[in-house]
Protein 1
Amino acid sequence: MNHLLGETLIYAATISISPVPVIAVILMLRSSRPKMMGLGFLAGWIAGIAVAATVMTAVASVIPDSADSGDGSQPVAGIARLVLGIALLFLAVKKFRSRPKRGEVQELPEWLNRINTMGPNAAPGFGFLLAALNPKNLMMAMAAGVVFGGAHAGIGTVVGAVTTFTVLAGLSVLVPVVLYLLAPVKILGVLESIMEWLMSNSNTIVMVVLTVLGTQIIGQGIDSF
């Protein structure tokens, strides 16, 4: 399992380094019912990542490949990685073009502003959809699924790897919620400062991460042939 986690750690980190869910959970922790909202969003976020990773792993496990031929090549996995890497670079360019101009303040999307009127019952569903339907998350889940499903390891090993991957990918939401539960008064000011910084730099952060990761995955795809 260590080998599987070693290969997919970068994908989990890429999901975790996502400004939008961090901003969303901080907004919920500032609401009138912060504990229920924060925990609900966390549960939905973790579930969304788990479902995406599990589905992609299941799909990858049934895709035939020629690795059994003895030459060690994996053309199907290679093509999947090439397509994924190019898609990530495309998203990076899109983020670069949509970044705020110098001196401009990045405004929250309208759907994030609706968190202020959201009830605790809606938080889990919101977290699930944000995790499971985010294009970047799906790409990372696909990349991890290619590794997990293509390893043809035992079910226990794969389940353990997917579970650990999910927890690592959810750390950026898990940590703020846990810190708030431990010290709500002290941590809220820190979280608000983090949110302001993320709002100003979110596009740049995502652009850099996608560029580095996209280039790496393309290299892995080329190496698979």
Protein 2
Amino acid sequence: MDKTIETIMSSILPILVAGLKVTIPLTIISFIFGLIIAIVTAIAKISSIRLLNLLFSGYVWIFRGTPLLVQLFIVFYGLPKAGIELNAWSAAITTFSLNTGAYASESVRASILSIPKGQWEAAQSIGMSYWMSLRRIIAPQAFRICLPPLSNTFISLVKDTSLASSITMVEMFMVSQRIAARTFDPLLLYSLVAVIYLLLCTVLTYLQGKLEKTSSSYV
């Protein structure tokens, strides 16, 4: 028992440091880029320009239809064969952003389409352009609608970053793997990192509820 407690106490700090230095920054950066991609994709898919619609629909189809781990391997290990070399950080951010953008774009698109068509018509009747109507009338309402699914996407991304260990990124799971290899106690170490992920996602879920409650008060 003493050895177990000693292992836990000596392992918590390195895992948390990896979380602060790698897991959390990787999640935030990837989500920001992914959200930008999602908005652009959603607008392109509801536009009347057929070529744009087809291109972005193809992008969503590919990234939603293939495993994230395979995408990471293609970007980090496969692209160098085509002359495109990315370090682990760049490869992870690129892959997570594109994957997040593909999934989040459907939430954004559905939120925009859920706004009654009459509001578009009303905005245009008072002289607003398409982009002004979208920015001032449609986007604020769509944001409140897509907030829950986007929050869920963010929380899922926190867990998905553990896959970055497969491309040599020293995030929380990689640190737990290294300690487990040294202590020969994989059950304890993997359970410990699982609890840390669980606590982090629990806090994010609580904040999600607060954010949703705050946003709904402005309706």
Protein 3
Amino acid sequence: MQTNSTFSVIFFTRKSSSSLSKLLIYARITVDGKRSEISLKRSVLVNDWDINKARCRGNTSKIRFLNAYLDEVHSKLLDCQKQIFSEGKMVTANSIKARYLGEDENHKTLRDIVEYHNSNMIEVLKFGTMKNYYTTEKYLYKFLDNELKASDIYLKQLNHRFICDFEIFLRNNKNSKNELTLTNNGVMKHLERLKKIINLACKLEWINKNPFQLFQLKFKKFDRQYLSERELELIESTFFKKEGLERVKDCFLFSCYTGLSYVDVKMLKSNHITRGIDNNYWIFTKREKTNETVKIPILPKALEIIKKYKAFSKHNNGEKVLPLYSNQKINVYLKEIAKDCGIHKNLTFHVARHTFATTVMLSNGVPIETVSKLLGHTKLSTTQIYARVVETKISEDIQNLLIRFKTKKEKYQAVNKPIILKA
């Protein structure tokens, strides 16, 4: 903290290029010999400026008003210097000027931090994630415009009420058909993204108090859809005459037996398939979402599908292993597949990933730590979202437990057989 720095403010004039009879008034801030100048957007006649007093001469109402304005500017600049000094920051001519003009961190706005975050994260986050941030940004600006009747707001004005009001706005937001556009978890995801942006503002020291400090995000937990063993067999055993449906069925089943997400199946190339340590075929790739490396042994049913589309892979020089449509088109086809197979579930491509974790892996005794590795998760808690212990597995485990109890009892009885003494 500075204690011996020199600080001064003086007013001076420069000739106006538009009028020879007028002078433009400036304020000069000097700290430790270093200067910074501010144009005050005011002018005075040449004969009305007193160089010695650095004020206007005369007693007209216009002159008195102009001198009062200069006194006010001088007072504000002194206040800016005191504020910066009391905050323990470096007092410089430029920092005082920035504080006075509202261009320093103390005057950063919500738009400033949103733009800073998005411009810096565009190379870090995936396109799909950034698209979600842009949607949150759109809702945020709509809220400012509709509810606060403002185009922007200072970060220091953000408080708990702002967050609560934004939540209410999101919950009540309707589309052109007068339908609510967001569920509870959709609202929470937008607030979660805003929270991350505000946390960044705190780290940059653009805001002193975090408005999210006392706010809790309340997500509703839902059981994720997955296919049972019977439903999986139903799809496997159904042949579709329509080529598009058959392709979608195969790609979906491939995901059920590898755990790869839509984008990872789409990006899968022939050079990602190689021999593993057991001399069997493995998939060595990176998750598009997290860039996490995954190594997946290819189960026989997944390998059959790869071989089925070998001609397709050769046709595009091994660039793609499977013929995948757009995610939207695939999900439309999956609805038709579910209907034809008599499956009463909302079938989407991501259901395959849940099916892999639950029905194919965990239900067959594969440890959750192994499943976590195969799914490419960095945290075990993420895998637990996918993982459910189904009733059949519970029943099977209890039966095995009862068998172990019975075996132990029989062994105990054999060892401790009662001795019968003959008379």
